[in-house]
Amino acid sequence: MEKIVDREVAWRVFAHEFNRSNLYISEGSERAPNYIVTPTGVKCNRLFIVGVVTEVENISHDNNLWKARIADPTGVFTLYAGQYQPEAAIFLSELKVPSYVAVVGKARKYEPEEGSVYVSVRPEEINTADEKQRDRWVLDTAERTLERIGIIEDALSSGASGNDLKEFLRKKNINTVLADGAVLAIEHYRNMDKILD
Amino acid sequence: MEIEFAPHIEEIKRALDNEIEDERIRTDLIKLLEYRVPLAEAKRSLIRKYGGSEKSSVRKLLDIQIGDRNIEVTGLVLDITKKTITVKNNEKTVFSGIIRDETSARSFTAWEDFGLNIGDTIKVTQAYVRNWQERPEVNFGGRSRVEKLPTPIVVDHEAQQKKLSELRDGEINVHSALTVLKLEPREISTKDGSKKILTGIGADESTKIPFTSWVLFPELAIGNTIEVKNAYVRSFRGVPTLHMNEKSVVKKLDRIIQYKEPHKVMIGDIIEKEGAFDVVIEGNILSIRPGSGLIARCPQCNRVIQKSMCRVHGKVDEKMDMRIKAIIDDGTGALTLVLDAGLTQEICGFTIEDATLVARTAMSQGEVEEEIRRKLLGKMLGARGNMSKGEFGITLVASKVWESPDIIKEKSRELLEKAGYNGKDS
Predict the structure, then answer these.
(1) Which parts of chain A sit beneath pLDDT 50?
(2) Any idea which fold B267-403 has?
């Protein structure tokens, strides 16, 4: 049976971690998904956020491009919704600030020049949320993040790298995607100790 | 070309029963190699030429793979049935059955009459493996040689007992133990008239599994803990189901295996399995898929239809129904959650009639889907049901659904403890 492509998981990542990600990979062909690799090794194509919209701005009337800032306890996500996200654009244009929202979106990067990478979120789905949903998201995200920090710490203390490290993580029953991400993150991000604080 | 011929000639000779002069083999081999025949193929064809057979490679039944040729297996014949099949308009008698060694049991087909009986321990060379219903099956053909061994191999049944969670589609000669939780006699029609069977749900400590018994075993009664031998597993709608037939042995046990209600599982963990029965998950609704909301069905075949036209039954008096197909995601994995009309009403608070009214007012069935999206998108739901993998991806058909309770305080305490325990993080 032909295996259909599994749906990308919507990762739970705090804004602080997301925004300091500057590793961007795309696998193989043109239509392959692109990923942002975060410091804790999330190979992130899609993410889920519940936060507070603090600012909505129509930055281009011609393209009906809307920008929103969504705050979590650690920082702010930047969201762009344009002509290809009409529902999200309408939603944002009618939104009162501040308000709780839940967003499913794709991780995007913008690299105006070599070395300076800006990451943002392009919404797929957006809806109003409430305080409880936000609190629960913060907890779930903290839980997932702690798990990932644990994996990275294990990985670092193993001293292995590349395929050996992947093998090491697989033996510890760590999910392939996370193991993959951890290897990439450790190769890319220097002074991991500082980031983990 | 400098090749050391002696070892190859030795190898060829070993495969042959009759003595052939080295020099003849050597000449033939060199000739073939001059034709640029690959060495392996050259050796094979010479062995065939002199009437020998390549030595079969020994395989355990667990290790056989579809496409294996010329293998040697040794095992105990557990079951054998004579069958008449039609191959290219010719009737042919074959024997199919089950063979087991210490590693696994496999189905086999013997294309000749080798005089096999249940209980024989046999060594078969020149066997091959074919695909039978997506599973490897051992085949004994015209060139196979079957030798009955005087000493039966001992297959330790106790060692083979499996937990229900270890059962996989296609397994045969399954030995397991379970407690009967639910039992329902059913009458089905077969080609020999109607037949009474038993269906039900069984469980061991951690796993529930549906079962079907083609025989009315008196031991199968609600509350009984039974040991079953020589059962088999078939998947039904992606969920492994245990089957018992007249060849199965069912025994009531004195001890009771107590099933523990399922804990929540992470989606990332269950989607690595091929299917799961009665599991509990919790996650956020990230997308409401098309085809959710108010739908119309054919009253005869239940297919979803558009504009009162069924593709089988033509113009019909459509029957309204409601459902939700949504992506649920807990940060470790994602799957499609399916809710029927009852569960949709429970979670969204409107009935099919309400939904029909909404659709009529807005003059669009899509409005109901929009309403569901506004209500559920981003929310955290818990659900219980069966997970399966199919052509539409990974699906969990819910038997229950609920809004996640407010556990923020407990959860934050637990997390702080965890983080504190880890020391410096967070």
Answers:
(1) 1-3, 197
(2) OB fold (Dihydrolipoamide Acetyltransferase, E2P) (2.40.50)
